[in-house]
Predict the 3D structure of the following.
Amino acid sequence: MPLYKNTSTQLSNLKEKPFKLEREIQRLFENNLSAIMGLELVKSEFTIKNKRIDTLGFDPQSKGFVIIEYKRERNSSVFDQGLTYLSLMLANKADFILEYNENKQKSLKRTDVDWSQSRVAFVTPSFTENQKEAVNFKDLAIELWEIKRYEGELIFINPIHKTNATESIMPILQRSPKYQQISNEIKAYTETEHLQGKSDHIVELYEKYKNAILNLSTDIEVKPQKLYVAFKKNNSNFCDIEVQKNSLKIFINMSKGKLDDSKSLAHDVSTVGHWGNGDYMIKIESDVNLEYIMSLVKQAIV
């Protein structure tokens, strides 16, 4: 992707400045892992069962571990390598939890982790079209991230989104004993599952609020999780919707005392157990206050 510098009315093409070492890419990501991918850095160069993992991260929102591998040049083995690492993780859960607890000085339990959301990310300056197609299954937990460096130390990072991903990888994995555990444990949640069995009123209400949220800004990603539907901007949840039988619950990802809510519609849930992110929750049964609620949600967009 060409980048340009605007000098008055004249555009000048910025020259790409390729990375010389994979370690440069790795250091850049690890030093900025929260900003780039919304992850906690657990361990750099994590070795397990004679396999060396470049970067081990943890997603505090999906509660899943993320293995990150870096390639300075195109590599044809991302699909097989990704599945191998997923199998390795699922077969050695205790080791990953121990590594997290030792490095983060926390007490993470096995039940605190949603292993169905485990995933592997590959980072490289470019991928082949075949590689992009190979990971374009709706439930394949492998991500592709392109990174390029340009003169002036400008960095371009492009997560490759799945396009029209409707096919499932599971029938393929189930035929291989090697990947049986992946097919049993990895799960891609959908909006359809959250809306299944709900009344027409709730489905319509969800669609209205979903579309209103998407209109708040560009590049908002809808990411269904196990217990709610997350809305992400810059790889961070800014609000979540929990679909219930007779209502919706919208969670606004802001800390207590930060939300400007003149109508006091949002409830403080900072001391109450809840599924969504943030300290504010709004229970919704109609679209009467939709516009005002969107003004609250917008405050959480960074």
Summary: The chain has a mean pLDDT of 90. The longest strand covers residues 40-48. Residues 191-300 form a domain with the Aspartate Aminotransferase, domain 1 fold (CATH 3.90.1150.200). Residues 200-214 form the longest helix (15 residues).
